[in-house]
Specification:
The complex is a heterodimer of chains A (about 625) and B (about 300). With about 625 residues, chain A is mainly alpha-helical. In chain A, helix 3 packs antiparallel against helix 4, helix 5 (about 140-155) packs antiparallel against helix 6 (about 165-190) and helix 11 (about 280-305) packs parallel to helix 16 (about 435-465). Chain A has a 3-stranded antiparallel β-sheet. A two-stranded antiparallel ribbon of chain A has the order 1-2. The longest helix of chain A is centred in the middle third of the chain and has 39 residues, at about 340-380. Chain A has helices at about 5-25, 30-60, 80-105, 115-130, 140-155, 165-190, 200-205, 210-230, 235-245, 245-270, 280-305, 310-335, 340-380, 395-410, 415-430, 435-465, 470, 480-500, 500-515, 555-575, 605-610, and strands at about 65-70, 75-80, 535, 540-545, 550-555, 580-585. Chain B is mainly alpha-helical. Chain B has one domain. Chain B is about 70% helix and about 0% strand. Chain B contains 11 helices and 1 strand. In chain B, helix 1 packs parallel to helix 10, helix 2 runs antiparallel to helix 9 (about 215-240) and helix 3 (about 65-85) runs parallel beside helix 9 (about 215-240). The radius of gyration of chain B is 19 Å and the shape is globular. In chain B, about 60% of the residues are buried. The chains are: A mainly alpha (about 625), B mainly alpha (about 300).
Chain lengths: ~625, ~300
């Protein structure tokens, strides 16, 4: 039935295991620890299968075209190619680690049973995995989308006795159903019917007028954009939903679910095209995507700086980071239509950067949400105004949070640096093709400093500074080992992504080369980027694009070595005169001691900046339900 | 020649480490003269650094970020200095790292300062850190555009294209505009009046550095001296590229002399202007950002 049973069977087996988990695990719900372990065992088994099949498709070659899963008269097109494989692998890794984290984390909610959670969590993973596996905009898409949406709705609504959570979940559900309507509507306008693969849909667009094409791509952009969380659509649901869900769920929502929107946009704008691209204005849609991306990263990140709720800060920052990915995709699409081969090569570099940021964001944002969860678990609050000084009490969590913060802020030589470098570089070098793209690139540079401000604040106000010694009544301890393990694993992933970007460039290139019908496929055929892009242990170089010479280069290991040597010099200098260290109290002009009354709180941070950008908006707390009305 | 490629980064580091305190001395002497004081000798900053290195290290925080921060600030500043084509000579790193790395390394130095300030738990330090970060956010685009202007023209982000070459062979409208913006932002780059808002001695008692003493404080001071020397060099290299003979040692001396002029300018403006409030400064930086974006647009259009 299928030409590649070696891919299809493990994926279906994994989906079956997830479905089984949803049925079996709730039976153990009364014994919480057992439920967590059984749940993790099922999810981990499924994820191993998914990751295995995904990496196999990405590295070794996937299905060339959609094949049909037939159930009587109904046929659902299934496509596991390189791109699907890449996303399957991301989903698998983060899902398994979140499930591991959840075993102990769910102790945080003694008042809520685990039945719903353990039933919905595997279905959520199942929905996401199915969504990147089906290849249509009708029946298969609807099934996968609804499984993903309804299960995540249940998960977001987990603390259902809190009115703001119920409200956030309801809003999420309504908007995701709207997104579903938009996407399915886009497919219908394109002339699709049940069983049409995206490739077939693209074929049906041949000869369509400018109006219908505009409608199709517009509907799909808004539909998938709503899911990905782009400005201004993401602001409607994302911060509320991501901040109120249990943390392992938040990690999945931000780390991978948003990426299903990105996956949809990729499939629509880089695969589902009229034959030969006739009638499809790549430059226009590229510019639209790039502009949306630039607006998203700028506004989302500035809104994030304004937040004092740790998880809300992370949620808004997810919008910002999605903006980088969309900017990279837009740049790629915009440049893909150029007549100059060198500019088309830059398009390939941009899409590499965008997909690399997908992988990196999954790792560091997943890790950051697990860190947010650890804060909540250990102290009972996620309010940065009340936290502070946890570094001595939670040293491992602090170190891990430091790695994640540096990564997302894009400090060299971290993972965020490598991917943002790629996106920014390709935008800046595209100078002649579009002035706007250069300006977007500078906006992205500016925004990465704002991101930095955000995470200096997040890390500084939670782990260093002071506050929890006065505001948190319970005894604060480091979180249990079972919660530390997934965090340490993700931190290790972040470090590898930062120091060895060539591994991931290789993986992504291979995944794209193994995706038939990709708009920029030419660049990823063997030798397609030879002589322009060199990727090795010694870093990434873009060269000889417009005549001989270096265009851009980065080498994380060299940066690391340079910084290490400079640090060694600094240590020598510090020790040179044998100065001795003495512990002293904080000095506040001599006649006062640091206390809860005179310490600096989070809401004062960057006040001048926040005031200047007041017009960008960004609510600092979710709206409570109308019936309950305000505070009790 | 090949040996020189390897030597150039070391020469950069040595010259900057040796000369940075001297320029600081010039600033202090100039400020004193303007205020009709005698002023400390030019070599006073060297003595200060040596004295600080031998003093006790007071630690109010007791956590590792507090101790790591001064090291990080110094290391980032030194790494930047090592990379630049000082005296017009590219080092061994030029083929592996580009100007985006330099921009981020400069930011990394700022992060270290902030981390130390937050770790020191002192209220004054936190206020200073908050202001420092706001300043960093708002002046970074100006710095980035200064470096990118050459890149846009030559379509290369390599160190050679970005730093000595922004003005390139001919002086365009974009370069002229950027030169003006750079001068307007210079005091903010080097954190001098009227933009010494984060340290604000009389108000925040050195802000982010209030809890630092001894060798840790020496490292921060040294890093700041290196940084201000870098910004003086950047001006000379980007906007006065014609100051060169092609002979390496002569070019080093010429650039050092031109940097002295920039420092005199910094000192003059710094000692004759009162400090701005942070909200006033933010509005001022916003205008500079808009102007630098205009410069990029002009450069892309080839003007």
């Amino acid at each position: 039935m299928f030409t590649r049973p070696d891919l299809v069977i493990p994926v279906f087996a994994a989906l079956a295991a997830l479905a089984a988990a949803a049925v079996v695990t709730p039976l153990f719900a009364a014994r919480r620890r057992a439920a967590g372990i059984v749940h993790f065992a099922f999810v981990a088994a499924a994820c191993v299968l998914l990751a295995w099949a995904g990496l196999k498709a990405a590295l070794g070659g996937g299905m060339d075209e959609a094949e049909f899963l037939r159930l009587g008269p109904i046929a659902v097109p299934i496509l596991i190619d390189g791109l699907s494989g890449l996303f399957l692998a991301v989903i698998a890794v983060l899902s398994a680690l979140s499930a591991l984290y959840a075993i102990r984390y769910m102790d945080h909610y003694p008042d809520y049973g685990l039945g719903r959670f353990t039933a919905a969590f595997p279905v959520f993973i199942l929905g996401m995995a199915a969504l990147v596996t089906v290849d249509d905009l009708s029946l298969g898409f609807t099934l996968a989308w609804q499984l993903m949406t309804l299960s995540s709705f249940v998960l977001i609504r987990f603390e259902r006795r809190k009115p703001e959570n119920v409200r956030a979940a309801a809003k999420y559900l309504a908007l995701m159903e709207l997104a579903w309507l938009l996407v399915v509507g886009g497919g219908l306008v394109a002339g699709g019917s049940i069983g049409d693969s995206l490739h077939t849909l693209g074929g049906k667009l041949a000869g369509a007028g400018a109006g219908p094409l505009f409608a199709v791509y517009g509907l799909l952009l808004v539909g998938f954009g709503l899911k990905a969380g782009v400005f201004p659509l993401g602001q409607l649901w994302l911060p509320d939903a991501h901040s109120v869900a249990p943390s392992p769920v938040s990690a999945l929502l931000s780390g991978v679910m948003l990426k299903t929107g990105i996956f949809g946009l990729l499939r629509v704008f880089f695969f589902m095209l009229p034959p030969g691209g006739n009638g499809f204005d790549a430059a226009l849609w590229g510019l639209v995507l790039a502009a949306v991306g630039a607006a998203t990263l700028f506004i989302g990140t500035i809104q994030s700086v304004k937040q004092s709720d740790a998880k809300r800060l992370l949620a808004f920052s997810s919008i910002g980071q999605i903006g980088y990915i969309v900017l990279g995709m837009g740049a790629a699409l915009l440049l893909s239509g150029s007549g100059v081969p060198a500019v088309r090569s830059l398009a390939a570099v941009a899409i590499l950067g965008a997909l690399f940021h997908v992988l990196n964001h999954a790792a560091f944002k997943g890790l950051l949400f697990l860190t947010g969860g650890s804060l909540l678990y250990a102290t009972g609050t996620k309010d940065l105004n009340r936290l502070g000084g946890l570094i001595k009490l939670m040293p491992v969590s602090a170190a891990v949070a430091g790695v994640a913060s540096l990564s997302i802020a894009g400090m060299p030589p971290s993972s965020g640096f490598a991917s943002k470098w790629t996106i920014i570089t390709s935008s800046l070098l595209a100078g002649d093709a579009s002035v706007l793209l250069v300006l977007f690139g500078i906006a992205a540079l500016f925004t990465s400093v704002v991101t930095l401000a955000c995470y200096v604040k997040f890390f500084g106000m939670a782990f260093t500074a002071s506050g929890s010694e006065w505001t948190v009544k319970k005894e604060i301890r480091e979180v249990p080992v079972l919660m530390l393990l997934p965090k340490l694993a993700l931190a290790a992933v972040c470090i590898v992504q930062g120091l060895f970007p060539f591994l991931f460039f290789g993986l992504i290139s291979s995944a794209l080369a193994n995706s038939r019908g990709f708009l920029l496929g030419e660049a990823f055929t063997p030798g397609g980027l030879d002589g322009m892009l060199s990727v090795s242990l010694l870093g990434i170089r873009v060269h000889d694009l417009f005549g001989p010479g270096l265009n851009a280069a980065v080498a994380p290991l060299v940066v690391l070595g340079l910084l290490a040597a400079a640090l060694a010099a600094a240590v020598l200098l510090r020790r040179s005169a044998g100065s001795r260290e003495v512990a002293v109290p904080t000095w506040l002009c001599g006649y006062q001691e640091l206390s809860d009354k005179n310490r600096y709180r989070d809401h004062g941070m960057f006040a001048a900046f926040k005031n200047f950008f007041r017009w960008t908006g960004g609510r600092t707390s979710p709206k409570a339900g109308r019936r309950q009305g305000g505070r009790p | 020649m090949r040996a020189l490629t390897y030597a150039a980064p070391l020469i950069n580091a040595l010259v900057f480490l040796l000369a940075a305190p001297l320029y600081e001395g010039v600033l202090r002497k100039l400020a004193a003269k303007i205020q009709s004081r005698q002023g400390p000798p030019l070599i006073q900053p060297y003595r200060d650094l040596l004295k600080l290195l031998g003093k006790q290290t007071l630690n109010s925080a007791g956590s590792w970020p507090f101790k790591l921060a001064p090291l990080g600030a110094f290391a980032a500043a030194l790494a930047v200095v090592v990379l630049i084509p000082f005296g017009g000579r590219l080092g061994v790193f030029a083929g592996r790292l580009d100007v985006i790395v330099v921009i981020y390394l400069l930011t990394l130095g700022g992060v270290a300062v902030l981390l130390g300030a937050l770790a020191s738990r002192n209220t004054f330090a936190l206020i200073g850190a908050s202001r420092e970060m706001v300043t960093m956010i708002m002046v970074e685009p100006v710095l980035a555009v200064t470096l990118i202007l050459g890149a846009v023209k030559l379509r290369s982000l390599g160190l050679a294209a970005a730093m000595p070459g922004a003005a390139g062979a001919k002086f365009t409208l974009a370069t002229g505009l950027m030169l003006a913006v750079y001068l307007l932002a210079l005091q903010a780059f080097v954190a001098r009046q009227p933009f010494d808002i984060a340290e604000a001695e009389v108000e925040l008692l050195e802000g982010p550095f209030i809890e630092y003493s001894g060798p840790n404080y020496a490292l921060f001071k040294y890093a700041m001296m290196l940084k201000q020397m870098f910004y003086a060099w950047l001006f000379v290299s980007v906007f006065l590229p014609w100051i060169r003979t092609g002979i390496y040692p002569a070019d080093i001396v010429l650039q050092l002399a031109a940097m002295l002029v920039v420092f005199l300018l910094i000192g003059l403006v710094g000692s004759t202007n009162p400090r701005l409030r942070i909200d006033q400064a933010v509005r001022y930086y916003a205008v500079l950002i808009v102007l630098s974006l205009a410069a990029v647009a002009l450069a892309v259009k080839g003007w």
